[in-house]
Amino acid sequence: MTKLKITVGNVDELADRTRGRLEAIESGADPEGLDEVQPELRFESYSELFDLLSAQRIELLEAIATHDPASIRAAAELVGRDYKTVHQQLSELAELGVIEWTDTEPGGAKKPQFPYDGLEIDLDLVDDERPDPATA
């Protein structure tokens, strides 16, 4: 397993980099560092990042990674929150690819799974492409 890298920046830049890697693979070339590909989730703003990584969601991710709950309800019990809130938070995390759902059996409860070793948050505090708030 590997860590999920979380960054803030231009989403188009990530798409361009991914597109370039795919083209290199299709042409048979070995793109530099291909073995070291790390899953990445990129947000366009710090606000979006902090909405995802609230203290409650981090606590929920930690509980799932540590205790491997069998269902959404079990995850809610682990963090002492109501089912509806935890279901909504897990659905948002699943939509972003931070967690995955594992069906225990047809018609059974959805089991949340954290498929990474951890999260790696990479924030470039100095970005030449971002306008300086003092001069904007």
From TrEMBL:
This is Transcriptional regulator.
